[in-house]
Each structure stands twice: as structure tokens, then as C-alpha cells.
Amino acid sequence: MSGNAERRAALQRERAAALAERLERLLQFDGDERALDVGAGAGALAFALAPRVREVVAVEIDEELAARARADAPANVEVLVGDGEHLPFERASFDFAGTLRTLHHTPRPELLVAELARVTRPGGTILVVDQLAPADPLVGLELTRFEHARDPSTTRVLADADLRGLFDSNSLKLLREEVVHEPRDLAAYLDLAGCQGDAREHAQSLAPSGYEAVVGWYVLSR
Asked: Count of domains in the chain?
């Protein structure tokens, strides 16, 4: 298992309790739902959902991360390798669909949100969680440059207004929203991405002063 997969799994374990508590507060399940986690990574969202629903399907494009999630998965979690922008499921296949910190890693976030909407049944629930860019487009571009230098898989960090536009274009109704500020130790944050050598120096030169991540949690109705 690569260092990147190990680091992501370790971070997942650290965040597990906080994630479970937030899901308990934001979402309501009756226990019989079929749930989908898109961009599952090492399985954080899927594993937090598993005790609350009947079945979880976790989709991850990275085969190594999918293998790690599959090895740790509870019995009611199925892990598939797949592209969140082109999901292999019929329309309205799930009662719940979510994506956790994935949109800023996908080339076409509008396709991923559209796919979440497509595969969720009418009346179902969608959860979108992602880092937010500042409203100022130039400041947002600077943030994306830093995040891409730190982790080249970063495509673009979207602002709140961008996400709301994607929700509106898919006729999704916003039920609840939370914005969380996450102070980050820059050295540890670069370590998490395995950012070393010249790339690390470059990323450090682009880092915002007093850097903290702003993360939006959006609960939507299909």
C-alpha cells in the first residue's frame, strides 16, 4: 500500500468520530436505505453510513484506495472502482447519495453533481461536502494554485455560489448547510499529501497566510 493511501486512511481514522457525530446531526435514516458514496477514498463516508442504512455502495476511481476500503469494509458495504462523473447505475437507484471532499479533485464537478441527482430517487437525500473557495475569484484562483501545488490531483476549489449554481441546475433543494473552519498546520498538511523537495518549497511559497480550510456541508433534497 502506498504512503498516500496509508496517510489518507490514518486521517480517516482520526476524523471518524467527528464525521459520525456530524452525520447523526445532519441526516435522518430509517435503517432501510440504499446509500451511495461517490469518491469514497479509503471509505470514510461509506463506513460512517454503514450502521445507519441497509446497504452502502462505495465508488472510488483509484484502485489502490478502493482496495484499501474493500479490505476494511463492513459487511453491508460494497466497494466498486468507477468514475463518479459516469456512474454505472440506473436512474433513481438510491435513497441517499453523498460525496465527501471529492468535487475539487474531479475535472467536471458539474457532471458528478448531475450524476448524484440522476441516481437518487425523487424525495431522496443528497449530501455534498467540499472545501470552499473565497467569493473573490482571484483569491479563489490563488487557493486552487496552492492546493494543486500541494496535491496535483486538485482541479479547482469551488466557491459557495458555484456549488449553489450546480444544485439549482439539477433542481436540488437545499435543506441544511453548515460551514466549518478547519485550522491547518501547514507542515502537517503538506506531509499528508506527500509533498516533498522542490514541490514542497513551491507549495509553501503559494500558501495563504494563516491558512485554514473552509468546508461546506450541504444536505439537499432530490
From this structure: 1
Domain range holding 18? Answer: 3-135+154-185+216-221
Report the Cα 30 to chain-centroid distance in Å. 24
| 104-149 residue pLDDT tens | 999 999 999 999 999 999 999 999 999 999 999 999 999 999 999 9
Contact 134, 140 (CB under 8 A): yes
Of the candidates 4, 41, 37, 11, the residue with the CA atom closest to the CA atom of residue 127: 37
Which of the four pLDDT bands, split at 50, 70 and 90, describes residue 2?
low
Distance CA 65, CA 58 (A): 11
The grid coordinates of residue 153 equal: 490531483
Burial of 60 (0-12, 13-18, 19+ CB in 10 A): buried
Q: What percent of the chain is predicted at pLDDT more than 90? A: 89
**What CATH number is attached to the domain comprising 97?**
3.40.50.150
pTM: 0.92
Residue with cell 469551488: 158
